[in-house]
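TL;DR need C-alpha cells for one chain.
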Amino acid sequence: MVEPRLTLHGSALSGHAHRVALLLRMLDLPHRVVDTPAELRRGAAFRRLNPFGQVPVLEDGDLVLADSNAILVYLVRRYAPGSDWLPDDPAGAAAVQRFLSIAAGEVMYGPGKLRLMALWGASGDPVQAAEVADRLFRFLEQHLATRDWLAAGHRTIADLACYSYVAHAPEGGLALEPWPHIRTWLRRVEALPGFFPMPSAPPRVAAPAS
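>> reply
TL;DR here they are.
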C-alpha cells in the first residue's frame, strides 16, 4: 500500500493542528497524522522540521511547511486552486487574510490563551486575555449578525482558522451563551461535510507548544 504523500504532525488538543486537519478532511486529501506530543517537539528531529518546536507541521513530499495559516493557504492553492475556500479576487483574498490575522492575534491571545492557562497552567495575564476575548466576541457577534460566514458569502479557510479556539472557549472559562450569532456560526461550521470535532481537554495535561 502506497503511503499518503501528505503527513501532518500535530496534537489532537491543538486548535492550530485541528484547523489543518479539518481542511485536509474537507478537501478529501489522503494523509497520515503523526501524533507529536510536547516531549517529541523538544527533540532535535522535530526541531529540524520546525525550529520553534510548534505544531502543526505539514510534509508534502520534500516540502516542509510550518504555521497553520500558511498551511491552509498552501493546501488550497496546491490542491484546490480556483476554489472558493480562498478567493482569487483582491478584495476577497484580503478579507480572508484579515481573519487569518485575527486567528493568529485576538483568537489566540484571547480564548486560546485563557484555555492554555486554565488547562495547562501556561503563564500569562488572565485579565488581559479575558479583555482581548471580550473585544473579539463583541466584534464577531456584531459581524455575524448580518452574515453567515466570516470573510465571504460562503465558507472559507478563515472560518476554519477561527473555529477551534472559539468553539473551545468554555475550556478557558468563557461562556458562549451570551453570543447567539457566534454559536449559530459555530453550528454552521460543524455542519460542513467532513467536519470532526476537536476533543475536549482534561485539565492540566502536558502543555502543547501552540
